[in-house]
Amino acid sequence: MIDAIEEALQPIRNSLQADGFGLKVDGFKEGVVSVVVLAGPEACVECLVPQEHMRLRIEYRLKGLVQSVHLRYPEHS
Q1: Which pLDDT belongs to residue 1?
Q2: How would you class 37 by CB atoms within 10 Å of its CB: exposed for 0-12, middle for 13-18, buried for 19 or more?
Q3: What is the 8-class DSSP label of residue 47?
Q4: Are 34 and 27 in contact (CB under 8 A)?
Q5: Rounded to whole angstroms, what are the CA distances from 68 to 25, 33, 64?
Q6: Shortest CA distance to 74 belongs to which of 8, 7, 23, 4?
Q7: Among 15, 1, 18, CA closest to 53
Q8: How does residue 31 score in pLDDT terms, banded at 50, 70 and 90?
Q9: 3-class state of residue 7 by DSSP
Q10: N or C: which end of the chain has fewer CB within 10 A?
Q11: pTM higher than 0.85 for the full model?
Q12: Helix, strand or coil, per DSSP, at residue 46
């Protein structure tokens, strides 16, 4: 299941990397996936979409794979 989640998130991961961010699947339990957006040293904080928008994008990509998404954002965003 984790492999399918990782594969589904790759397009989002690619777009985040262009702005200096990373995307990490931090866990999956009972239908809930935990995802963390990580800021690299050169991250463009102004480029990061609002957290709710990102959560909706992730939920759309993972539709049918998970029941819900727990998303954590960098503290400075």
Answers
A1: 85
A2: buried
A3: G
A4: yes
A5: 13, 7, 10
A6: 23
A7: 15
A8: very high
A9: helix
A10: N
A11: yes
A12: helix
Closest Cα partner for 58 from 22, 5, 3? Answer: 5
- CA dihedral over 31, 60, 38, 14, signed as positive or negative: positive
HSE at residue 21, side-chain half, CA atoms within 13 A, is 26
* Alpha helix (H) residue ranges in the chain: 2-17, 51-61
Task: Reply yes or no on whether the pLDDT at 12 is more than 80.
Answer: yes
Contact 37, 54 (CB under 8 A): yes
Q: Sorting pLDDT into bands at 50, 70 and 90, what band is 75?
A: confident
Q: Which CATH number is 2-72 given?
A: 3.30.300.130
Give the residue from 4, 8, 11, 18 showing the smallest Cα distance to 48.
Answer: 18
User: What's the CA gap between 72 and 52, in Å, rounded?
Assistant: 10
